[in-house]
Amino acid sequence: MRYFVTGEQHRKSLLNALVLMFLGYIVLLWVSNGMMYFHRMDLTSESVKLYYLGSEEQFKPPRSYEGMLEVSHFHLFSMGMLVVTLTHLMLMTDFSVRLKIWISGLTYVSAIADEAGGWLVRFVHPQFAYFKIGAFVLLEFSLAALLIVVIFAMIRARVRMHHGNPG
């Protein structure tokens, strides 16, 4: 009874709507992340090497240490905040703990690997281009999985709220 007297059901509905809007925004971020990658490179090792190592024939300079450091500085913070937010939202769903652990772990590992991949290509060995490609693909798939799981849970909760079934 307190649930209805205090208006808690309306706050839950509003919170659900706000989280769904946030997730819509993150879907756009996910799409633009892929678009930025494919604007610079594709899924071939040669394109990754060209982007990070440059080409004298094409008058493309290699990525600079300072430029990569600036990008990494921003990405480490922003991707960290994004991943912790999405994994936190996923923890509140009723999906299995095993699924939550796998998706969370894959997302954190792939985000760090994606960031490290460019550094490895540029300063360790060009063959790390394959690592960079794999890390990017895994990051995109793990973020998509997180988004799908959380969006599905939020929509399911919304339907339950509107049908008067909180459980």
Notable features of this structure?
mainly alpha; 0% strand; disordered N terminus
Q: How do the helices and strands line up, and which of them pair or pack?
A:
Elements: H1 2-5, H2 8-40, H3 45-53, H4 65-91, H5 97-123, H6 129-162
Characterize the structure shown.
80% of the residues lie in helices and 0% in strands. α3 (45-53) packs across α5. Residues 1-5 have low confidence and may be disordered. It starts with a helix and ends in a 5-residue tail after the last helix. The longest helix has 34 residues, at 129-162. It has helices at 2-5, 8-40, 45-53, 65-91, 97-123, 129-162. It is elongated and about 65 Å long. With 167 residues, the chain is mostly helical. The chain is built from 6 helices and no strands.
Q: How confident overall, as mean pLDDT?
A: 90
> Largest beta sheet, briefly?
none
Assign an overall shape: elongated
Q: Structural class from helices and strands?
A: mainly alpha
Low-confidence segments: 1-5
Rg, nearest Å:
20 Å
- From the N-terminal CA to the C-terminal CA, the straight-line distance is 15 Å
From N to C, what is the helix and strand string?
Answer: HHHHHH
Helix segment tally:
6
User: What portion of the residues fall into strands of 2 or more residues?
Assistant: under 5%
Please estimate the helix content.
over 70%
